[in-house]
Each structure stands twice: as structure tokens, then as C-alpha cells.
Amino acid sequence: MGYVVREYVEGYWYHIHTRGQRGEPLFFSPEDRIHYLNLLDDRLARRGGNIGSFCLMTNHVHLLLRMGETPLGEILKAAHSKYARDFNAARGTDGHVTQGRPGVKVVLDEDYLWHLVGYIHSNPVKAKIVKEPSNYRWSSWFWFLGEECNWIELKSWHYPPQFDGGDRAEVFRRATGTKKSEWPGERKYIGTVEQWDEFECRRQAGREAQAYRERRGRRTKKEIATEVAEEADLEVEELQGPSRARNVSGPRREAMALMYEEGYGTSEIARYFNRTPASVSQAYKKWKEDEE
Q1: In angstroms, how far is CA 53 from the centroid of its own chain?
Q2: Which neighbouring-strand residues pair with 15?
Q3: Within this chain, do residues 231 and 261 fall inside the same structural domain, yes or no?
Q4: How many domains does the chain have?
């Protein structure tokens, strides 16, 4: 069952769909695809999340991900931001690489999940690039058919339900052989009210736990700066330094904005980065525009 959501619950599987900006390519080379998947895999592995299926087309991506301890929205934002910086640096370009926020559906029904795995791997067939899903190199069919993938190793790989037994290959062949009318496609509301109610209960429990953590105290400025620096492959001292290089100024702006949203004032943020309060306000405004 799939619902369009913007909140995440640990342990659930999600169908993620991302397109290139204005339909332009996300990948121009094999190295681009490998780098994208490595960025995502590394962040999921560190936060207890998993990849269960993927298909990397030229201008869009389909992913089946299971959430760990960190909301998938944060994982995707970090991976996509780093990929965009590297993508632009390699080509002397700037601006967004992915188009807006990813499409997200939570998977609540195992029948839906079974069809979804087939749908994800059938994308190259639907696009008439190949005749069989296993003829397309840039998807996860290797794992399902028990063949060696010679271009990447995934630390966060985990088989989805129904595909974790000894008959995995046969189950996968049946899933990819379903009729187009049986694919989940763009359907948004599939399943039962009871399944949605269970998800809502778990989501509310997560909200209450988050509220408790917030009452205990907000994150420190150093914690925020360290997290942003780590995702950008930088040192905190570089964010605090005078550099105006794009690979530093973007993460610095993000760190300022996150501190502001955490409740810190512009003056104390400015002191942390040795800047003026006005520059913090400008950074936050620009960050909000980019987020929208």
C-alpha cells in the first residue's frame, strides 16, 4: 500500500522517485551512477537504513528504501546535496540537479511491495531500452537472481519481504513478469484502513518521542556544524573560516539555517561563524528559497 507522506517511521519500506531538474539527465557516465549509489548507501548504512531495490535511469531514479534511525528525508537531502555539488564541480555548472523534493510513498501492504519490486526493475523495459529487466546493468536485479554485481558493493543491502527466501529468483521473475495493469504506477491509496491506522499510530508515537527529545534540549551549534561538515566532506573550521568557495559557502549557509531553526539567534550564530547577524539572516532566506 502506498501513501504520499512527508513523515517517516522507522522500519517501514518506502518507494522513492526522483527526477533530474527539468527532465535533464541525472547521470552522464557509469561513474555518476556509481557515485550516486555509493553516497546513498554510505548514509543509509551509517544510520541503520537499507536499500531493497533500485533502478538508475538516465533522468530519474526509483528506490525501495527501509528507514533506520534517521528520517529518510534527511538521508536523501544529504546524499542529493553532496551529489549535486560533485556533479556541478565536475562540469563547471551550478544549481539544482534533482527536481524538487523526491516523490515518496510508504509501503504498507506486502502485495503492493511485491508488485513494486517488479515495477522498479521493469522501468528499462517500459522505456524500451531493453527487452528483459536483467539486460539493464543499472538496477538491482543481480541480487535477486543470485548473480555477482561487478560494479558496486552495497553495505546497506537488505532483501524486501517475500524475496528473502531460497526461491528468490523465481519470485523475482514472477514479479517482473506481471502485466502493466498490475503495477503500482501512480496509484496513491492502495490497501486497507487498518493498515493506515497502524502506520498513523506508529507515526504519532515517533512524534511524541521527538517532542520528548526536544524538551530535553536542542542540539548544540557544534553538533549541527559537525553534522553538516561531515556530509560535505569538510572540517568545521572550514565552515567557520573566511572561504567563499561554493563547496564551503553552501554547507555554511545550511548550518546557519539549521541553527536558526533550532532556535538560536542571529547574533550568536554570527559569532560562531565570525560573521554579521545580517549575513545569517541572508543565509537563512537563501536556504529557505532553495528548500522550496
Answers
A1: 13
A2: 64, 105
A3: yes
A4: 2
Q: Are residues 90 and 206 in the same domain?
A: yes
CATH number for the domain spanning 129: value is: 3.30.70.1290
Residue 197 and residue 222 in one domain: no
Distance CA 25, CA 209 (A): 40
55's grid cell: 533502478
Report the C-alpha gap between 267 and 275 in whole angstroms: 9
Strand partners, 39: none
Looking up residue 271, the CATH number of its domain turns out to be 1.10.1750.10
pLDDT by residue for the chain (292 residues), tens digit each?
Answer: 444 555 677 888 999 999 998 889 999 999 999 999 999 999 999 888 999 999 999 999 999 999 988 888 889 988 998 999 999 999 888 888 888 888 888 888 878 888 899 999 999 999 999 999 999 999 999 999 999 999 999 999 999 988 988 899 999 999 998 665 555 555 444 455 566 566 666 666 665 555 544 445 677 888 899 989 988 888 889 999 888 888 998 999 999 988 888 778 887 888 888 888 788 888 888 888 776 5
The H or E element that residue 14 is part of is strand 13-19
Q: Which residues span the domain enclosing 226? A: 218-291
DSSP 102: P
Q: Is the Cβ–Cβ distance between 141 and 172 less than 8 Å?
A: yes
